[in-house]
Structures are given as C-alpha cells and as structure tokens.
Design brief:
By secondary structure, this protein is mostly helical. The chain has 16 helices and three strands. The chain is globular, with a radius of gyration of 19 Å. The structure holds zinc ion (ZN).
C-alpha cells in the first residue's frame, strides 16, 4: 500500500516536538528523518529570497560589489568558503549546493540557515587580522550546516515546527508566509553548546584541510574579552573552554600542529590586500 509522506511524518513531527519538551534527546536522530535535504533546500531558498527583498534591506543589507575593489573582496571571501567546502568529503556533507553571502553591516556575527545558506557580516571580518581567522569563521559555519545543527535547532523549536508542517505538506504559499513571520527566529537559530563544540571541532579540521592555520577560530575569539564577539555569543552559546578545546585538538594532531607552528599559514598579507575595503577595528 502506498502511503503519502505527509500522512506518516506529520504526526511524528508533532510527537517529536512533545518529546523534546520533556528534555528527551530522541529528536537529534529523528530530525534527520523528518526533514529531508530537499526540505532544507526549500526552506533555505525561501529564507534567502526574503532576505534579499526590500523589507529586510535595512536589517540584512547584501554587500554590493559595485567597484573592482569591492568585487575582489567579495570574491576573496566566497572563494575561500568554496575552497573549504570543496575539501569536505562528499560523505560528510549534504547533497545540496551551498550559497555564501556577505552582509554589509557592522555586526560581529555569521550565521546559516538550513539548506546551505551561509551569511557573514563585514563587521566580524573587520575584527580579523589574517586569512586563518576568516577561514575559522567560515569553517565553523560550514560545519554547522554539514552537521545539520540549524536544521535540528529549527526542528526543536515548537513555533518553528509549524514550518515543518508547511514543508512536509508541500504548501509553498504557507511556507512563504511562515518564513516571513518567523524570519528573525530563523536568522538567529540557537544551537546547543554541544553543537558549538562540534562546529569548532569540524571547523578546525576543515581549516587544516586547506592548509591555513588551524588556530584561526581560537585567535579570533581570544581577541574578545568574553571569549567571542557579543552578537556571535548571542547566537552561539559558547562553552567557557572553547579556545582551549581548539588548542587541544590542534595539539593532538601532528598535521594540525605543524600548520599551527608555521606563521606562513596565517596568510596575513594576502588577507590585508583582499580586505582593504573593510575598515579594521
Ligand atoms: Zn556556531
């Protein structure tokens, strides 16, 4: 007997939301069963479309590459992200393509939504001192996507579970409406501390895979008194020992350790040349 996907999965989605309210860890597994990569793509595409509309232009102004220097900066950032992504084994990442977008605003943050849509603010790049730190933030966000952290965070949110129903019901109109009404929540999905540690772990591995200095994320975070930029922390609940964890990971790997010991892996001059249009703070 053929049974439609929505008939089976919708009750499971509601059940899983109830389970997570009881603090059950069950949903981490069921999340991947409930939201397909295709669903993630649809959700991300809808979010990205809305982010680029006039209504969100003030909150999320897309970086406009209207001069050769600005185009050079945009391409530098997105090409580094693509270089990192290309080194992630196919078995360790979703099947959908990634989209990397720079938001032109003085906010010290980066975020992603399900479906491979990654956003980085010029504000956090202005705090960076070398290419390994940029690779660190990009690698960290890519890791959140490859590990489906934002998808699972969305699935655990009772209000956003309505979005799941729209996805599972294949109701495009309802999806548009719900993404609009939950836009800010989607842009600020809270992930768990375990997810943060995992994103740091994989992000550090990813930086090493492109032969940049794997301590990038640690040196950037260490520059902020509280262990991270304020807005980054608001969407990234950080463990106290985050920097130390990255240092331990690097110490435990001969390859990462060798990269960390070589100052050439910082690519400081190349970073400065390609980010001249961003005032450093
Ligand atoms: Zn994070």
């Amino acid at each position: 007997m053929k049974v439609s996907k929505s008939k089976i999965l919708l009750p499971l989605a509601l059940c899983a939301v109830l389970l997570t309210r009881c603090g059950c860890d069950f949903f981490g597994t069921t999340g991947s069963l409930l939201i397909s990569e295709d669903d993630e793509s649809k959700l991300g595409a809808e979010f990205d479309t809305q982010l680029r509309t006039k209504d969100t232009a003030n909150a999320y102004p897309i970086y406009v590459a209207n001069t050769p220097e600005r185009a050079q900066f945009r391409d530098y950032v997105t090409n580094l992200a693509k270089e990192i992504l290309a080194k992630v084994p196919e078995s360790g990442k979703p099947g959908y393509p990634f989209t990397f977008t720079i938001i032109d605003k003085n906010v010290e943050n980066a975020f992603a939504v399900p479906g491979g849509y990654v956003y980085i603010y010029t504000g956090i790049i202005s705090k960076m001192r070398n290419e390994s730190e940029l690779a660190g933030v990009l690698g960290h966000e890519i890791a959140h996507v490859t590990q489906h952290h934002y998808r699972d965070a969305m699935a655990k949110d009772a209000a956003l579970s309505l979005l799941l129903q729209a996805l599972l019901g294949n109701d495009a109109g309802k999806l548009t409406q719900l993404v609009a009404s939950n836009f800010a929540s989607l842009a600020q999905l809270k992930v768990s501390r375990d997810n943060e540690s995992e994103a740091d772990f994989y992000g550090t591995k990813y930086i090493g895979s492109v032969a940049r200095n794997p301590l990038g994320i640690a040196t950037l975070f260490a520059r902020f008194p509280a262990g991270g930029p304020p807005s980054w922390l608001s969407t990234h609940p950080a463990p106290e020992n985050r920097v130390e964890d990255v240092e331990s990971e690097v110490d435990a790997s001969a390859t990462l350790k060798a990269l960390a010991a070589d100052s050439a892996t910082l690519f400081r001059i190349r970073f400065e040349e390609n980010t001249k249009v961003i005032p450093k703070t």
